[in-house]
Amino acid sequence: MSSDEITRREVLVLTAATGGLLAGGQLMWGPVSPAAAQDAASTPTPLEVMLRINGKEHRLTLDPRTTLLDAVREHLHLTGSKKGCGLGQCGACTVLMDGKRVKSCLSLAALMEGREITTIEGLAQGEVLHPLQAAFIERDAFQCGYCTSGQIMAGVACINEGHAGSPEEIREWMSGNLCRCGAYDHIVAAIQDAAAAPSATQGG
Ligand code: FES
Ligand code: FES
Where along the chain do its domains lie? Predict the structure, then answer.
């Protein structure tokens, strides 16, 4: 059988039968040691990726598995977005993609080409804080601060989405952002204040 004749089903049957596997897009025949499999899987071809972050374009050469969070933190040194769980559960890594909130730890950087990404570093207008940043300070809406950039980015989206009509609504729509310090009452109050501010719907 030539490789041209191999169907997906046949690949599955063959790999199950022979102990071969697909690694790095290559079909490896016969029994494969774990080390060889790891080597093959850990050397994907780097990608050239153009990311637009906070209004500036950045050309990066990335492992295709790089998350948006790692691209902004490790490659662009924008460390305001935090890595909490790395599993999409805490919201510490929240950024805006075309104005919508995304968990950057779950987003592949290579899929962000052509998107406008806003991180906490891009929210203020020069020296002028976004109304929600100012409200967080005014309302003392953080303790350790680890969750704060994600809370603010999610809060901006929450306001822009029109989901900041009441404390209950804010709590529901901010439920994807956890705060280990338990500053929730202050965070909700800050979002309410910012939602009432004339220029709250900006930054995404
Ligand atoms: S670090 Fe992304 S959701 Fe926790
Ligand atoms: S302020 Fe500490 S985790 Fe939220």
Answer: 3-41, 47-119, 131-196
Q: Ligand 1 test: best mutation among 67, 87, 97, most atoms within 8 Å of CB?
A: 87
For a substitution probing ligand 1, which of 89, 108, 153 has the most ligand atoms within 8 Å of its CB?
Answer: 89
Give the homologous superfamily in CATH for domain 131-196. Answer: [2Fe-2S]-binding domain (1.10.150.120)
What kind of fold does domain 47-119 have according to CATH? Ubiquitin-like (UB roll) (3.10.20)
- Pick the atom of ligand 1 nearest to 105's CA: 2
Q: How far is the CA of 149 from the centre of ligand 2 (A)?
A: 10
| Secondary structure (H, E, C), the chain | CCHHHCCHHHHHHHHHHHCCEEECCEEECCCCCHHHHHHHHCCCCCEEEEEEECCEEEEEEECCCCEHHHHHHHHCCCCCCCCCCCCCCCCCCEEEECCEEEEHHHCEHHHHCCCEEECHHHCCECCECCHHHHHHHHCCCCCCCCCHHHHHHHHHHHHHCCCCCCHHHHHHHCCCCCCCCCCHHHHHHHHHHHHHCCCCCCCC
Q: Kindly report the pTM of this predicted structure.
A: 0.80
pLDDT digits (tens, 9 = 90+) for 119-173: 999 999 999 999 999 999 999 999 999 999 999 999 999 999 999 999 999 999 9
